[in-house]
Amino acid sequence: MIKKIICQLWNQRRMNGWIFIELVIVSFFLWTVIDPIYILTADKLIASGYDAHNRYVVKIGNYESSNGNYQAEMNTDSICKESYNRIIRVVRDLPEMKDFSIASSASFPNSGSWNGTQIYNDTADIKNDKYIHTQYYEFYLQDGSNMFRTYGMKDAFTGADINIPADAGTRQKVFLSEALARALFGKTDVTGQKVYSHDKSSYEIAGVFQDYKHRNYEQPYPLLVWVYNEIQGKTYMNWRYSITFSLKEGVDANAFEQRFKKEVMPLLKAGNFYCSGLESFEEVSYMYAQRSGVINQLRLKYSLAGFALLCIFLGMVGTFWIRCNARRQEIGIMRSMGASENAVRNQFLAEAFLLVTVAFVVALPVVFHQVHESGFFSSGVTRTILDMSYWQNQPVMHFCIVTLMTYIILLVIALIGTYIPVKRASHILPADALRDE
Amino acid sequence: MIKLYLKQAWTLIKQNKLFTSIYVVGTGLSIALTMTMFIIFYVKFAPIYPEYNRDRMLTIKAMKCYPKTNKESWNCNGGASYYLVDKMLKDLPHLEAIGAGKQDFMGNNTIALPDKKEVMEVNPYYADSGFWSVFSFRFLAGKPFTQADVDADLPVAVLSESLAKRIFASTDVVGKYFTFNGKEFRVCGVVQDVSNATPDTAGDLWIPLFLHSWVSRTSEGEKLIGNVHIYMLAPTPADKEALRAEVQDVFRKYNLQTSEYENDLMQQPDDFWKSTFRKNSCEAPDWGELLKGLIYILLALLFIPAMNLSGMISSRMDHRLCELGVRRAYGATNKILLGQVLWENLLLTCLGGLIGILLSYLIVLTASDWILNLFDDWVNDPAKTPFLSFEMLFNPWIFSFAFVLCVLLNLISAFVPALWSLRHTIIQSLNTKR
């Protein structure tokens, strides 16, 4: 059967040539388009390490000197601190609030800012410059603020809430993500050990939390959390410190958001600081994905993939429609010799399958060369350490998955494109087909 | 003769409806996506209100500086110091006009009538007086603020037509007062609305530059990093290179006389079109990679459907070999027959082109809130949705490009199959029906 089909394809090579070339081009093109989609989607599917549901960031602004509401006498560090603390306490006392957190402005998921530093597991490493690059968060314990509970970050071992020692702020203890602990010590059971900064200051590890993604479309990056007791008064505190909180179970988020806008926002005004709005973690995440071009990437790649597949669909419909017309006599003979409609259909589908498969195999070395020269698609923070447990970080597995995805999608579309004209042609009665000829 | 070819093509279209449909849809799809891409870049690069002088404009939108002793300890920002405009560049020989502007990205700007409590959010744009000479705003009433107003930090503003109508229900509002961020401002002019599709000039109102607390008249010591975007106009497009060289020379000399810091223009000043790709404030874009990516997409949009169409034309040519044989027997040359095939297919391609251009308008209009940013790595404010004006969508360039695309697609897809069919001898061609 296969031999017969190969013979058929070869005999009609001129007619098949164009669709074959198109299939080769599309195989290559589709591969390059599916690769970014695969990476972005696979990275997005990795557990984020926090819970975005019913969590909010309070947007705080400050009146600039050019603003009519600006009060020059309020613009001292101490008054600013008092004003900011007043706003914090109003948020803390909201009846719907479950947990709240005061952190630096780069220290909440999908924040536009990103802080990084170099960290060492031994003072000898400082001399040898053997550091681990890590992202860091800073949070402040004042007024009962608890970043871990607010974000829903969990202990790496127990999966429960993270316990913050009472002296964490005073003794500047730190918390590490699993990825950072592994990178520094090769294991995650490191509570009580010390890490060092470049100036040889040492910090005791108070706990290890589950891997955490600062940005939704990226993989978890090593993360270190510094703990401090209280914020410092500055005139630009609204840029320096973020206020986030989570809602209690059972609170209607929509009703709360409306109440916040109407009743709470006017209360969040002290000195030159004022509340300019409330943003849920989901909104912050989507906004960042839009700003960073990830949504654009996905839109563009999906459009291009759709375009290429539609072209293949039309190409297969056109080619097999012409081919079926040209082979009516053959179909008539097959049908008169007892071949069922299914048998006729299957033969054409097998031809399409073979055409797609051969074209795809021809395109693969070119794809391989492209990947070898330019690498896979990459986005976000350049990472020095890759977590090899993710398939997208294993080159062979990555290549195989994208190849398989491309092949299956291409094959399915091509077979649908083939099926439509073939189904129509296989309905023909043997007598009609033979009489037409 | 061409009329006859087109008549014949029309008959063939009516006879082969499925062929026609697939051909037209394939062509339409290719042209729709290519045209969408063209419209996106047309809006970014071409002369559009109020940025009619883009072809003779140079920009500085980012600045980097570092200690002369340590290049790695750099400092950069998405803007330059106004000191450049005020003291360093304004007297260059090939400079017709220079202006500076700053988009507000902090948000939370409100506007109201003095005696009303109700406020509305607006997007202000901070500009100096040169800004009005560089860009061609259409004033419906009043005039722009002057450099004296800018220097004196006078609370005056130019309003957009729609904002004037929203707060005063009229555009004839010069001299009227309103409050902006709690301060009283006087209207000095009203201009035709500017779309967010031209982000270098877009705003709801334009106010003097130094009213923005982040903009300073002076430089930060020897550092020239700052917060304004600088727009320079050369007298003609041909003078741009001379102006660019002059700007770079000013920088070279400035860097020679500084003792501590070196200021890096990062290959600026940019042509306007190039500046639309400058999203990273700390390094120049990789133009080669950018261009490669766009050409790759463009080629895919053209060649993938062209293969489709070639396959279909090739099959149709096989059916018409006999007809070609008869025509050649009566003296038609290969050139004439090739012309016939290309003209016939051009009709089909143009039909597809027409559908394609309509489809591209549909895509651009339905996705207008994000489509213009589709190729951008970074979108400053996704919440700002642009409106698309008549001149952005309906102009000779867009229609000419669509037609050129049709001809190109027609040539790519029909030329080789037609030439292939004409290789047969007259006898072979006539015998195909036997």
From TrEMBL, chain A:
Its main location: membrane. The chain crosses the membrane at residues 20-40, 302-322, 343-368, 396-420. It holds the Pfam family MacB_PCD. Keywords: Cell membrane, Membrane, Transmembrane, Transmembrane helix. It is a multi-pass membrane protein. Residues 303-428 form the ABC3 transporter permease C-terminal domain. GO terms for cellular component: plasma membrane. Residues 146-262 form the MacB-like periplasmic core domain. It is found in: Cell membrane. One of its GO terms (molecular function) is transmembrane transporter activity. It comes from the Bacteria. Belongs to the ABC-4 integral membrane protein family. This is ABC3 transporter permease protein domain-containing protein. It comes from Phocaeicola massiliensis B84634 = Timone 84634 = DSM 17679 = JCM 13223. The lineage of its organism: Bacteria, Pseudomonadati, Bacteroidota, Bacteroidia, Bacteroidales.
UniProtKB/TrEMBL annotation, chain B:
It is found in: Cell membrane. Keywords: Cell membrane, Membrane, Transmembrane, Transmembrane helix. The chain crosses the membrane at residues 21-43, 290-310, 345-364, 397-420. The lineage of its organism: Bacteria, Pseudomonadati, Bacteroidota, Bacteroidia, Bacteroidales. Its main location: membrane. Residues 297-423 form the ABC3 transporter permease C-terminal domain. This is ABC3 transporter permease protein domain-containing protein. It is a multi-pass membrane protein.
